[in-house]
Amino acid sequence: MEKVNIAQKLSLFSEFWSPKIVGELNGQLVKLAKFKGEFVWHKHEGEDEMFYVLSGVLNIEFRDRVETLRENEFIIVPRGVEHKPVATEEVSVMLFEPNTTLNTGDQVNEKTRSSLDKI
Amino acid sequence: MEKVNIAQKLSLFSEFWSPKIVGELNGQLVKLAKFKGEFVWHKHEGEDEMFYVLSGVLNIEFRDRVETLRENEFIIVPRGVEHKPVATEEVSVMLFEPNTTLNTGDQVNEKTRSSLDKI
Question: Does the keyword Isomerase belong to this entry (chains A, B) (predicted)?
Fold first, then answer.
């Protein structure tokens, strides 16, 4: 059991759209990620997903609207809901989701990361 | 589905040691709490518990040491591990734990909150 310093962990990687595992509890993972640009439309059939913005601005597009998240704002995307994260500038995000969650959900493409590093 | 602004939610309450529910996903709750003073020694037999410090300094005493958490640091206390949160000055914390978790774990006393408000 060790404490985790978010800034220190964020300094360890620079790759976009490649979540890193920084904690696990009750079958859920805590991940850090950096986003820039547009992700892909996807959904997670069996998993709710939480996006917590640590720095920057994250737009999450839904089929009927866009939610804009700033520092220290979060949203929980319920299972089954299509979404597409978009970041005009670099954004750092903390994710909470089950350890079964694939980053691209029901889509498999060049952004899919099936094995995540623990940092 | 609505985004949550942490500062706005923290402005809605001032009571110490009384976690408020601000989100739920995958059977887990996201809670906000303000701590000041000493809590009680306790453990959660079946639940891991995450403490994420939003502002202030939180000491978590364990039987063999103390961990000091500052802003944007977190720790995951594994199930079964006795701990006692202590905050010399006011601290704001985000908690992440199963929806079955009782704040005082295996102890029931004046600090026990068996029904939490959702804000």
Answer: yes
